[in-house]
Amino acid sequence: MKRYQKSLSRRTLLRGAGKIAIALPFLEEMRTRSVWGAPAAPPMRAFNIFLGGGVPFLHWRGGTTLDGPLTPLAPLANKMAFVRGIQSMGGHPAAAGAAFTGKNPVNNTTMGGPSIDNEIMRYFYPSGKPPTPVDVQGAGYYYKFLDDPSRWVKSWDQQGHPSGNFVDDPKALFATFFGAAPGGTPATMTGPTPDQKIATSILDTVVSQYQFYMSPASNLTTASRSKISDHLDAVRQLEAKLQGTSLITSGGGGGKLATCGTPATPPANVYVSKHHNGASTGGNVVAADFVSSFKIMADVYAMGVACDLFRFGYTDACCAGDGLTFTGPYNVAGQTIDLGAVGETHDTNHAMGDNPTPGSPALIKQGYHSHLFLECCSYIIQQFDKYMDSNGQSILANSFVMLGTDLATNHSGNGVFTAISTAGGKFKPGVFDVTGQLIDFLTTCKAALGMTGNVPKTGMTSFLA
Amino acid sequence: MRIGLARAALASTAMLAACHGSISTGGPGSTGSGSQTVGNGGSTGTGTTPNGPGTGTVSSLPPGSTMTTTPACKSAPLATGNAYLRRLTRWEYVNSVADVLKIAAPTGLPDLLPPDIRANGFSNDFGGQLVSLDHVTAYSDAADAVGAALAASPAWLAPFATCNATTPACRDQIVGALGLRLFRRPATAAEITTFGGLFDAAVANGQATAPAAASVVVRGMLQTPQFLYRIESQQAVAGAPARALDNYEIASRLSYFLWSSAPDDTLLAAAKAGDLTSPDKLRAQVTRMLGGAHARDVIQRYFREWLSLDDLDEAARGAAFTPQLAAAMKQETLDDVGADLWDAKHPLMTMFTSQSTIVQPVLAAHYGFPAPGPDGRVSTASQPNRTGILTHAGVLTVNGDADASIILRGLYVFRKVFCQDVPPPPAGAASTMLAPVTASERQKSDARLANQTCAACHGQFDPLAYAFEPFNNVGQAWTKDTNGNAVKSDGWITGATKVPYTGVGDYMAALVQDPRVSDCMTSHIAEFAYGRAMVDDDMCMLQDISGRLGATGTRTFADVVTAIASSPYFLYTAVQ
């Protein structure tokens, strides 16, 4: 439904339309979101990049060389710390839920604690939230397990509950951030009709109610207010969508970088997640379509960061235990990987068992699966490296970006694949061996980031700068 | 920690209550009259609490409150864990709109709203209530649809106001009346001002009549947190680990538990009068509400979600498993529990032993029963293994997979009937094949149990599925599996003491006698009531609920619901 392009303050309109002036308790909050100066230093950001199904340790075929199934990561060899030897939980549900928390889930919607991005957000922003239009943005693809968010939600709040919102349609993500029209320029309209004015008045009123419940006066706990805040973020996105504008044109993005622009408009036939909730196997997906669509999503997502629409979030290159079958060839840097007409599923991970023979057909087939998802993950991380902050370093170099997965081999968490960005020089690029649990790794990362109360763990310091 | 794991170490709560007796909370506790501040910072003015500030523990309850929990719980908080918000489910949203506005829900309204995530098995579990652009878009579209429906019913406003004008006085009356129903408590002064402004904006933009402008107010209110979320004040009272709900908050808890809908006028009037903090008057409201039309729908919803019957929509079992058959399977269980456990008030545990059910012709043919009569009722006695709800074809389809897996069926019973769980499979478990591919499910299970490593977990739940081996993957009786192996039905109920059974009849009888099962039934219904998983800290509450119930063989579903709603724990919330 197309509403109208805002040409004057909505609250001015609302007040003018009504016979009385309505209460406007949210001006201060609006100001902080729309009148930012350019940040003097790069803002703290954190992103969790997840791939489902794991990366077996045996794919480190050349010792420290990123080749074979790890080839997609080669462009990041000098930009990230690839950490080997971390012990995580076994099995999809527990390990996927714990991928960025390091703690066993309580159940499929409640984790044992917050994810590291959420901890960083609350530590570095005294209010617990960044001054951006969206607090936490998730994006990516998954199939199945609607009822098990532990498989695909990768940001968890203080209470271990899902944080932020998630978009699995590149077109929707684009429209929210940059508007429906190419170039982010709203379509020219002749002015608001009475119905459009009413629709806007409704949204203004609704927004004011969410803003009240985000305030201490609401008598809600911090965690509950955070949930309300997530809802308000989505309302703001709706507001922009209905006005034919976007988060950019409706005042967001005040801390945007000079390179903030508009990515290419996603084509109509872009792949979109097809949710399912019970069947053990999903439909076939052409691998090339999946990768190209993911990259379109990544372009939009990374530009959203460059435009400072959000500073925290996560992406999914499929969820743990996904049931899709990927078919056909796709090309990466001159390599052609052909998954064939029959295709590959995540079951290939399990077919090889816990101790596959190096070079065995099962391991090779699993490698296709890892390669496919690593290509997606690598691409979005590389997008973060395209945009430069005020200190001349890229978003990737300044941010805490963690690449994680659920499993190592089969259902084992013994040596789960992990990589992190250098995060402002806190970590060294390269390949490092460690010994210890995922929770120890995360604690060490927090310590290195200067988060008080955290001490580097024994056996976990090799990657520290 | 999920409570099931701890419960295994406990005796039946009924036994606990019997051993320890009741605790009378005498003493000079305050009867309390302090109003609670809710909503937009205004006072509801009538939200009396049951015990004033108090300490939020059993010992602080007012004189006359009777608890049936153990002495150890006396100093425990009446609400524990984290405070949380619950958003209306799709079903609750539709019910609330229809009941509050007294209109038929617009056609297609449920489909406008995103499906609920069934976290922990239940769609009303707060843990799965993520929010996204899809959600708020849906809420906007749904509100517009409701507005259109109101426009088609010019007299819709009459129940809400004695006036029908756009004057300030009438406007405020209308906004106040709509706020009371949609926010489930009196609107605050700030809310009346804000939504009054919206009313005026609507008038100024062509919605010149009171019903038209009021419909705009409704569209706005339907998208607010006050409507979409069940908001209870989470502000701590000094020194108290839990906070007593006010009357309106109690009304909302009751109505969404018993009706999956908003409070009706009678319940709101009771809240206004402060009646809901009186145990006797609260119980009277529970009794009244259980007689309402929605209550029967709720029991069916509970069973639909507890047994995961909606998974039938996604199940793939070959061409013969048609959507029509799947729908008939689901309907059998819903009709059966509605007729037996609700209308006829049969004891809850009889669901495991009943040899009667209600089927549609397509399902009767699937079972091999004669065509049913007009009421669909058939006896299952002709198939000796066909005993109880766990042998309904729908359950026997969703509890396994295409192979009628003993593992999945055992886990289904272990989790849903015993409230127990096991850790995820260890490394390599999925690829371990201890018996030939063509072996029967039972032979494969025997091999797992002969392996010490596998038996550590599989020994706990595999045997709970042996009784179902005489049924194939769509719940039809068979004597040989697809590989020609003869099927067996003997086994044992696992636990500290093995309870052997020779077939389904023995098995179901053993379930009825097992205190873990009756405790688990109570626990699941409590999860449905509270919208969250039960954890160790809930043991005191569950003991109190069980202590309010009679013998396990006589308690009905309504008895359990009443016990939950009557327990003082139901009247408290956790705080920050």
Reconstruct the topology from this structure.
The complex is a heterodimer of chains A (465) and B (576).
Chain A: H1 10-17, H2 27-34, E1 46-51, E2 80-87, H3 92-98, H4 116-124, E3 136-141, E4 165-167, H5 170-178, H6 194-213, H7 222-242, E5 284-286, H8 287-306, E6 312-317, E7 325-327, E8 329-332, E9 335-338, H9 347-351, H10 361-384, H11 395-398, E10 400-405, E11 418-421, E12 430-437, H12 438-448
Helix pairs in contact in A: 1-6, 5-8, 6-7, 8-10
Chain B: H1 3-7, H2 13-20, E1 23-24, E2 37-38, E3 42-43, E4 66-67, E5 86-87, H3 90-101, H4 109-112, H5 133-151, H6 168-183, H7 189-204, H8 210-221, H9 225-228, E6 229-230, E7 242-244, H10 247-258, H11 265-272, H12 279-290, H13 293-306, H14 323-343, E8 356-358, H15 361-367, E9 377-379, H16 393-398, H17 406-416, H18 441-450, H19 452-461, E10 491-493, E11 499-501, H20 504-513, H21 515-530, H22 539-547, H23 557-566, E12 572-574
Antiparallel strand pairs in B: 1-4, 2-3, 5-6, 7-12, 8-9, 10-11
Helix pairs in contact in B: 2-22, 5-8, 6-7, 6-8, 7-8, 10-11, 12-23, 13-14, 18-19, 22-23
